[in-house]
Write a structure and sequence with these properties.
A hairpin with a 7-residue loop joins strand 1 and strand 2. The strands form 2 sheets. The protein has a two-stranded antiparallel ribbon. The protein has 12 helices and 4 strands. Helix content is 62%, strand content 4%.
Length: 286
């Protein structure tokens, strides 16, 4: 395996692990990683005159070739053109950031990768007779994010390609209709990955958001105490999420996010959860 491919894999894995541990900004960091991979591919292709994109692209035959299994991951961060990556980045920024902030980073990461994997397998199954047909792009995973958002927040309004804002459930139906049009055209867009990813995100979202992925704050301070700490517009916005959220683990995630942003009212130092109690760096217990 070429050193530059190892570097790309390291960036993808490193960025994902960082977001998982820090529980934040996966959608935005994924955008940055996609941009980095896009630039790396351009540089390698320019300097070596080789098909660098093909080295990262997924082909159905890769499932039977152990040395090429890494493409299941790298293909999700690779793009054919500037327009291709731009559309995916915009989708991640507008819908991905919203969903990640709503359900928490860890559930979002799981939905993203499961949907991406299902989308890849759907493409492989549909193109098994052409084992060297390549596919790249984050579209399968992002389609899963759209499906998950439409399942969990169907009435949230977004726009697609500068159209009139519409509820997510309408947007997802329009997305499926577009994929069916693509399926009956002669384009080389991997519509199978889009449909597979969308279906996966729609089906698994309710299960994943209820999976205990966050450290719960069991000795919880009262909501009234939290409201007293909400002294900035950002904290007040997070407080509204805490009050409105019904899923226990998602509420727990919002509370931990709130505490990471708030400061101790006694000394102004940062807060943390220690032995199921909320304390500041100087030992004040809330």
């Amino acid at each position: 395996m070429e050193p530059w491919i190892l570097a790309v894999i390291a960036v993808i894995v490193g960025g994902t692990v960082y977001c998982w541990l820090k529980q934040g900004n996966f959608a935005l960091i994924t955008c940055a990683i996609c941009a980095i991979v896009f630039v790396v591919v351009l540089v390698v292709q320019e300097s070596t005159a080789s098909g660098a994109l093909g080295d990262l692209a997924f082909m159905p035959d890769d499932l039977t070739t152990p040395s090429r299994l890494y493409t299941v991951l790298t293909s999700m961060y690779s793009h054919v053109s500037f327009e291709h990556i731009l559309f995916n980045v915009l989708a991640l920024i507008f819908i991905g950031v919203f969903l990640e902030q709503s359900i928490g980073t860890r559930p979002f990461v799981l939905i993203y990768f499961v949907a991406g994997l299902v989308g890849t397998l759907a493409f492989a199954a549909s193109n098994w007779s052409t084992p060297f047909q390549g596919a790249v792009g984050a579209s399968g995973a992002i389609s899963g994010i759209l499906g998950a958002a439409a399942r969990l927040y169907p009435n949230e309004r977004f726009s697609l390609m500068a159209l009139i804002p519409m509820p997510l459930w309408v947007l997802s139906i329009l997305f499926v209709f577009i994929q069916l049009l693509i399926a009956f055209s002669s384009t080389d867009i991997a519509w199978e990955a889009h449909i597979g990813g969308l279906a996966a995100g729609f089906l698994i979202a309710p299960v994943i958001v209820r999976t205990p992925l966050h450290r719960r704050v069991k000795r919880m301070i009262s909501l009234s105490a939290l409201r007293k700490l909400a002294t900035t517009p950002e904290l007040k916005a997070i407080m509204r999420h805490i009050e409105d959220e019904e899923v226990p683990d998602v509420r727990s995630a919002w509370i931990e996010h709130f505490l990471s942003k708030a400061i101790c009212p006694h000394c102004g130092s940062k807060l943390k959860v220690s032995r199921e109690a909320v304390v500041c760096q100087k030992g004040h217990i809330l």
